[in-house]
Amino acid sequence: MPADHARVEPAIAAIIALREQGASVHCITNSVAQNFTANVLLACGASPSMTASHEEAPQFTERLDALLINLGTLDAERRAAIRDCAGVAARRGIPVVLDPVKCDLSPPRLAFAAGLLSQGNMILKANQAEARLLAEAPAALRVVTGSVDEISAPTGERGAVSNGHPLMDRTVAMGCALGALVAALAVRAQTPFDGALAALLWFGVAGEIAAERASGPGGFASGFLDALYATSPETIRKQAGIA
User: What does each C-alpha distance from 193 to 40, 189, 223 come to in angstroms?
Assistant: First the structure.
């Protein structure tokens, strides 16, 4: 699909800004995703922190640039930390990304996610099943992942990204890490839409490049980190598949 350059260039600018200026993201995330998520952020020029301690996490959120809330492993400690961190982030006005992992399988988790969205101006990053259940909840931006990833803003602005590779679905924490990158790029982009588009393009193109060199999921995971780190803006611009 030919790139829409009017949309690609603000996304490219956000990628360049993140690489040059960095961004710190506090991640309350799935315990199985922490290591990969941290490595993704570091490869892209961002700085991660990962504590889910109710005593510490709000203090980290006070000092960092963005917040990721991922509901993948939602124990009592994380619930308490999430509530307090969401309040800190709302007061400070920093970007917050909510990834309501598996809320379609758990009514309590769905209610918790809906309650979070009702309290703040959050970016919702979800798969299609999760997004359908949260369709009525307010969100600053919706990023819905699938065979084609879609972005929609309350203003009516919409976009879609077709980049990516099936091996991305065979790699643990890929979607969780994407939410963290959306948060980091929201810090440096001119708009949340531009930041989300940048994250989807960067991830998708890196996935395509890594898949060309990998024989399976193990090699793909390490190659994906290398591709995130090394892929140039020119390559992302050339391979961007957006609508």
Answer: 20, 8, 27
Q: What is the pLDDT of residues 44-101, one digit of tens each?
A: 999 999 999 999 999 999 999 999 999 999 999 999 999 999 999 999 999 999 999 9
Distances (CA, A) of 232 to 43, 53, 175, 207: 13, 37, 22, 14
> Which pTM value belongs to this model?
0.96
Domains and their CATH numbers in the chain:
5-237 (3.40.1190.20)
In three-state secondary structure terms, 159 is strand
Q: Calculate the CA dihedral of residues 88, 90, 93, 97 and round it to 10 degrees.
A: 100
pLDDT at 1 over 70: no
Q: What would the two tokens of residue 72 be?
A: 């993948």
- Give the span between the Cα atoms of 79 and 25, in whole angstroms: 18
- Ordered alpha helix ranges (H), 22-170: 34-43, 57-63, 76-92, 107-119, 128-133
Q: What is the pLDDT of residue 2?
A: 44
